[in-house]
Design a protein that fits this description.
Helices cover 44% and strands 11% of the residues. The protein is α/β, with parallel strands linked by helices. It folds into three domains: 78 residues, no CATH class; 235 residues, TIM Barrel, CATH 3.20.20; 93 residues, no CATH class. The radius of gyration is 23 Å and the shape is globular.
């Protein structure tokens, strides 16, 4: 019997046999599901589960087998479309579904994403694995990090971190490597140290409030992530699990959480439902919560210093935008000016927060306005769903009435970041390089070049851009890409 073939579309996947469905006629198979098809489906699902193992060797082996099955024609993957997700956290910070870098790369390719990017809090631990997986899969990919930073110029205004004046989420994308040295290595290590100390101090205060439910950071929290980079969301999950261990009766557990959090917790949210996890975080860790303290000097790095680090490490500093309703975001042009003065060159948006049922017209209008401002300032727009909170989508619904007009802008931003990532990694000629500064008369011209590179370059030809000298012209790079096809 011939092996089976997995036919993958954008929204559905089904296992069909090769003899019933040769070539591209898989979608026509409507016969009854056979035991061989079931075994094939289970095999694929088993390999996909191994992609989330904390054992890097097991992840790599599982991905290699999946790629072999693609190469052999046993798994069919769709052609890339126009959907993108450039902001997905992995389990190296917190992914609500437990996705590793390899798992996200595989699912992104299986869903036909045009470009995909990983972003983790305070570390670049996912970078090498994700870029290697993306290359194996023929996926256009890039990697970066996210952190919270302090903006002195906005010290009395709330921006993207609710209830925290002066603090905003900030990103660097398109890093060419995680192997840094000197000042860059120390800055990156310090990001992790600051975040982990902040977590430990926070947990200590929350432990006092939630007794008898108390956590041990090493035994209860760090075990939830493969490289010791825990986040507040890991702590919330650990508290939910510890409470379940402490109270095996649902009514007692419900009473505990309702009393400790000061809200009526539904039985349906036990033991670790989305609303419960979010409430634990809001009531114990955010402003007004029992574990929250006003950040002091040194709690977060300066945005300007973070921008300098990202640039020196070969990435692109990225401002972030929430929904335009905070005091700081109501003057977003002023905020962007502050960030751009020290090197910020793109803006990140989470579209799903700003349209649809329950959002309201104000946020949707704010979304259009910030995208229009980004175009005016020639800032590439980075979009994604994060996937670091239960219920978040794998990819945005770009065919909705609200988002469909913005798709070309989002796709352009993704192609620019991908092109930067490849050119910076292969020859040091990325978007923020000295070569780019000298080669283009305007940011608009630079954007057009990097968009063209990102849209036309196929991942299997990335190595063709290795070793290019700084004397090369933009047109010569485009010609080189064209000749490689």
């Amino acid at each position: 019997m011939s092996p089976g073939k997995l036919h993958s579309g954008k929204n559905n996947i089904k296992f069909v046999t090769r003899d019933r469905c040769p070539g591209n006629r898989a979608a026509k198979h409507k016969g009854p599901v056979t035991s061989r098809e079931i075994r094939g489906t289970r095999l694929i699902e088993g390999l996909e589960q191994k992609l989330d193992s904390f054992d890097s060797a097991e992840r790599k082996e599982a991905l290699s087998v999946l790629c072999e099955k693609v190469e052999a024609g046993e798994i069919m993957l769709p052609a890339p479309g126009s959907d993108v997700n450039m902001h997905c956290h992995t389990f190296f910070s917190y992914n609500t579904y437990g996705y590793s870098p390899s798992k996200f790369a595989w699912l992104a390719r299986k869903r036909g994403l045009a470009v995909a990017g990983v972003v983790d809090f305070d570390v670049l631990d996912a970078l090498e694995e994700f870029l290697e997986a993306a290359k194996m899969l023929g996926l256009k990919g890039c990697a970066g990090l996210e952190s919270r930073v302090f903006v002195p110029e906005f010290s009395h205004r709330v921006m993207t971190s609710p209830g925290e004046p002066g603090i905003t989420y900030h990103m660097g994308v398109g890093f060419p490597s995680a192997r840094l040295d000197g000042e860059q290595e120390e800055f990156l290590l310090n990001l992790r140290r600051i975040a982990q100390q902040r977590n430990r101090d926070l947990m200590g205060r929350v432990n006092e409030h939630l007794r008898p439910v108390e956590l041990d950071y090493e035994q209860d929290v760090l075990v939830l992530t493969p490289s010791g980079n825990a986040t507040e969301r890991h702590i919330c999950l650990a508290y939910a699990r510890k409470a379940r261990e402490t109270f095996d009766d649902d009514n007692a557990l419900q009473k505990f959480w309702s009393e400790k959090l000061g809200v009526e917790v539904e039985l349906s949210q036990l033991p670790q439902g989305r609303d419960l996890l979010n409430t634990i975080r809001a009531k114990t860790m955010k402003r007004g919560g029992v574990g929250y303290v006003v950040p002091d000097k040194g709690s977060f790095p300066l945005m300007a210093d973070t921008n300098r680090f990202v640039l020196a490490a070969g990435g692109i500093p990225v401002m972030t935008w929430l929904d335009g309703t905070s005091e700081g975001e109501k003057v977003i042009e002023e905020l962007l000016e502050v960030g751009m003065a020290t090197g910020a060159a793109a803006i990140n948006i989470i579209p799903d927060r700003n349209y649809g049922t329950g959002v309201g017209d104000e946020k949707t209008e704010n979304l259009y306005q910030v995208v229009e401002l980004a175009q005016k300032l020639h800032l590439p727009v980075v979009v994604g769903t994060e996937m670091n909170s239960p219920g978040q989508k794998f990819v945005d619904d770009f065919d909705t009435e609200e988002l469909s007009p913005l798709v070309p802008i989002f796709l352009k931003g993704a192609h620019i970041i991908y092109a930067h990532s490849v050119l910076q990694q292969k020859c040091g000629l990325g978007y923020t390089s000295e070569w780019a500064r000298k080669s283009f008369e305007s940011v608009a011209e630079k954007n057009e070049f990097f968009q063209t590179v990102g849209s036309s370059l196929e991942p299997r030809y990335e190595d063709k851009l290795g070793g290019l000298s700084e004397d090369i012209t933009a047109q010569e790079i485009l010609d080189k890409i064209s000749d490689s096809k």
